[in-house]
Amino acid sequence: MSDFTLKAPVGANKKPKRVGRGSSSGLGTTAGRGNKGQQSRSGKRVPYVGFEGGQMPLYRRIARRGFSNAPFKKEYAILNVADLEKKFADGETVNRESLKARRLVGKVKDGIKILGNGDISKKLVIEVEKISAAAKEKVEKAGGSVQLIPEKSVKSK
Fold this sequence. Notes:
By secondary structure, the chain is α/β, with parallel strands linked by helices. It is 17% helix and 13% strand. It is built from 4 helices and 6 strands, in the order H-E-H-E-H-E-E-E-H-E. The chain has helices at residues 58-61, 81-87, 96-101, 133-141; strands at 77-80, 93-94, 112-115, 125-128, 130-131, 145-148. The strands form 2 sheets. The chain has a 3-stranded parallel beta sheet with strand order 1-3-5. The longest helix has 9 residues, at 133-141. It is elongated, with a radius of gyration of 32 Å. The mean pLDDT is 89.
């Protein structure tokens, strides 16, 4: 193949848009910006997110009052008994340190909660902040035991 036979694919090389070059060009007079208004002016910039053209923005029209429970919300690391079945041997203790060592939980904010999804056949000693009734029943049926750790007091933000 010779150099002189190479061609760029159709549409690869476009001519730049030449605006404001007379009415016959198709982009004359208003230069493709439409007629009047903020968007047609030079330096067209909407002042900020939520700007409504000078109208009172929605976030300022709506009243801010009432109670929010967000500062008091508790976030638990969630695990299922099926995860414990896979990663732990018979007779081991399941607590925050052992779960972090096996990379089942990362950063724990308010505690760990065990849920009852899956089956468990190993005898485990579980020390966590919360456990569902189904998970507790499955662990005790397998011969294990559950010890609940008291939760920390409400965190301040």
